[in-house]
Design a protein that fits this description.
Blueprint (H helix, E strand, L loop, with lengths): L1 H6 L5 E6 L4 E7 L5 E7 L10 H5 L8 E3 L3 H10 L4 E10 L5 E9 L10 E5 L3 H4 L11 E10 L3 H12 L3 E7 L4 E6 L4 E6 L5 H9 L2 E9 L2 H7 L2 E6 L2 E6 L9 E5 L3
Parallel strand pairs: 4-7, 8-11, 12-15
Antiparallel strand pairs: 1-2, 1-5, 2-3, 5-6, 6-7, 8-12, 9-10, 10-11, 13-14, 14-15
């Protein structure tokens, strides 16, 4: 996965082995602090304790995470609105240079981490030890993640859940023929909800294979024309806006788009 990301200009920085001893990771860090984490098992074919079916099936996006400043208080708040939350629990990894990086995680609901609601992270050691902007993207027109696109069966139910849990205000629900899905978005939130447009669509097949989870990542560009010139993408749309898309076949099925920053 690191090799195919590098082939499209997104070179991930290797971060080391997780404290479970089974998985390891690499990061594409952006200037706004967001990042894409690549994760797999150290031994090919081993069963991961997290997202085992996604990793074994090369699913691409499988979960998303939100950083909080007081993870214990956020767990209490989630429970107060009816969302079970496991944690906070301590984790760590050793970077290739031997530096130990520590953080706490918490997991809303009972499914795999971050498949619909985000799992939560709070750093114990300085955040810069865990994630920094990657040399392949820092200072470029790519500034970060504009939206995580979560594939679900029932968009109305999922939108209502985010309203209940985070007080997010829905902005629009509309078909996106290019994405072959019905997309719901929120006014001020980096999240979109996608339901398949029909039974024969790629998103419906993905839901059958992996269940509800992130299905795509939309990056933010300060200059879409520069991104088109610099990166191996094709022109398309996202919710009616001009967009660029990497070829999913080139990224082992991972769908990553780029839109221009809104003024």
């Amino acid at each position: 996965m690191r090799a195919v990301f590098a082939s499209v200009g997104l070179i991930a920085d290797y971060g080391g082995v997780h404290s479970n001893g089974i998985t390891h990771m690499a990061l594409v860090g952006f200037d706004d602090g967001s990042y894409i984490e690549l994760i797999s098992t150290v031994e090919p074919g081993a069963r991961s304790p997290w997202w085992p079916d996604h990793i074994a099936g090369d699913a691409g996006p499988c979960g998303w995470c939100a950083r909080v400043t007081d993870i214990g208080a956020e767990c209490d708040r989630l429970r107060s609105v009816g969302v079970p939350a496991r944690g906070p629990l301590p984790y760590h990894r050793a970077r290739p240079d031997g530096t130990r990086v520590e953080w706490d995680l918490a997991f809303p609901d009972d499914g795999p981490p971050g498949t619909v609601l985000p799992f939560l992270i709070e750093d114990r050691t300085p955040r810069a030890l865990r994630v920094q902007p990657s040399a392949s993207v820092t200072g470029t027109e790519l500034t970060g993640i504009a939206s995580v696109v979560i594939g679900v069966r029932n968009a109305a139910w999922t939108v209502a859940m985010f309203e209940q849990v985070y007080d997010w205000v829905p902005r629009v629900t509309q078909p996106d023929p290019a994405f072959d899905a019905i997309i719901s978005s929120f006014r001020v939130a980096p999240v979109s909800i996608a339901a398949p447009a029909g039974p024969g669509t790629w998103l419906n097949d993905r839901l059958n294979a992996f269940g509800e989870c992130p299905a795509a990542i939309i990056l933010r560009s300060k200059d879409l024309a520069e991104s088109a010139r610099r990166l191996p993408t094709t022109r398309g749309t996202w919710l009616g806006r001009p967009a660029l898309w990497f070829d999913p076949a080139r990224l082992n099925g991972t769908r990553i788009g780029i839109i221009e920053e809104e003024s």
